[in-house]
Amino acid sequence: xxxxxxxxxxxxLGLVSTxxxxxxxxxxxxxxxxxxxxxxxxxxxxAKTVAENVLLYxxxxxxxxxxIQIQKPLSDAQKKELQALKSSTEGCTTDNNAxxxxxxxxxxxxxxxxxxxxxxAFLMGLDYLLAAQYANGGWxxxxxxxxxxxxxxxYNDDSMARILMxxxxxxxxxxxxxxxxxxxxxxxxxxxxxxGIDCIIKTQYKxxxxxxxxxxxxxxxxxxxxxARAYELPSLSGKESAKIVLLLMxxxxxxxxxxxxxxxxxxxxxxxxxTGLREDRVLKDGKITDKKMVADTAAPxxxxxxxxxxxxxxxxxxxxxxxxxxxxxxxDERRNGYSWYTNEPKEVLKAYDKWKKKLSTEIKSAxxxxxxxxxxxxxxxxxxxxxxxxxxxxxxxxxSPAFPYQRVTITxxxxxxxxxxxxxxxxxxxxxxxxxxxxxxxxxxxxxGKINLGRxxxxxxxxxxxxxxxxxxxxxxxQNTAGPVxxxxxxxxxxxxxxxxxxxxxxxxxxxxxxxxxxKQYYKDCFIEGTVDFIFGSATAVFENCHIHxxxxxxxxxxxxxxxxxxxxxxxxCKLTAGEKATEVYLGRPWRINAxxxxxxxxxxxxxxxxxxDNWSKAEAEKASxxxxxxxxxxxxxxxxxxxxSHQLTKTEAKEYTLDKILGGTNSKLNWxxxxx
Length: 677
Fold this sequence. Notes:
29% of the residues lie in helices and 20% in strands. By secondary structure, the chain is α/β, with parallel strands linked by helices. Among the domains are: 18-203, Glycosyltransferase (Alpha/alpha barrel); 382-663, 3 Solenoid (Pectate Lyase C-like).
């Protein structure tokens, strides 16, 4: 009997202990809860209840609002209100730890309670972080953008540093987060991380030509230090700069630019540290009622939150925005309600020596890869697993010889390469060869509205841009994944004598841009898909044995052929197909009135409109353009119903459409289109 009561007593004490533990957890702040490591609590029913709140607070766009104690119980009315706010994007932010801390919570509870909803919410949060990034690599305080200083690149309260640490864990495939991302998302995270670091390097402030540190926020266009609230003036930040440097120190095998940035910032921290000064606080009911700075030779080092850009002098402000140079000069509300001093740089100085030793070891043992020269500059291997000369395609191109005397072959191993690739004008004779067209994928997601640099933003969206003549591309998938959001180019070819063979080109509007007055290009055995005008441009281009797939009711082509060109777009032995949503598709329309497009021996699906061609509301194009067909087949070939101003070629006329006549000529290198490697 005594044993029975002992067992009951033990169970009772265990229950009381659990209740006390849970009560103690809920009494913590939301930030403290997300940062604690307590597997037992994350496995509890109470944690699951809190997780329901986390899911409710998340907006459909993937982000969360800030300054919410999410762990607090919700009434039925509050739950309904949050459900109604799901489609709203207002208030979504990364400020004050928002979004990144909710993602951390979801990772911890998913590890103990693997509910797919937690995983999906985490991945939505990750998508939100990726979508919010500016093209220059920075992040605003709110996304979608909120007017005012919120659009500035935000280092304030370590917002951008925390985002980049999330992306670093994802791209490095560590076990920090229990929720794993797809290879495509990992690749996106790597690109976003690299762009973010590049932004940090570019925004490091130069004082009289010497690199120093960073401001709490930088203008998203000029990258210069910028103002936020009235008392947060452009300045060098002793607080925010610390986390930035710790982030840079965490990078494995850092570039020389990163090393320079760290060295300069550490030197600046040493230069501006404040010695012999102590902050005294008067507390009442747990709240600060007064702060005073007191001389104390034994006080640990301090750094000012805000320092003048030209001479590092600490300053302070009330809400009137007037600089004062002593904390005692500002009113009680701002003096006591804001952090004007910090000791965070001490962590940087503490870690610096260890970082230097590690860096020295890495430099000595680093393999001959990265931005160093390949073993054979005319035969370069790109592989994401480290087995090649470079890990990215753009690195390989950067390190290819300019205007070479012989062809440079860049072989790309299977993988998803989430990067914008540019083959510049000076990198001629490049052969970009994938290991397999299905598994060697170059992908990016720029689009007109994202670029947002005026009416010509379309031409800045390509995933791959070719400007170097005599380029050959084969065995690759090139895609723009922006979706149906307007103009978004996958492949832009603005060069002469270019061959694209056995490739998959994926996109929506404006998938393939073939450009250049007098330029000639050859596309063979390719799959090309899109929606509106997805093959467009001014070059003379032959498409042979290609699969042209329409995804919506629109136009296959939009040629802008110069009047001086005899040929424009010529499709030979191609197959025209469509998705379920595409039932009324035109063969083409004139981007410019002298457009020329011809289909020979092509198989046309029933999605092709009987009139075939559209004049784009340009009556003059009916006389100036040349649209024709010859010997085509399939339900979409209805020559008797075609637009009256189009043509059906005779056998004699069709004989003018051969590769040699279209792509050859006295101004072209003989048979440049016959060798695909």
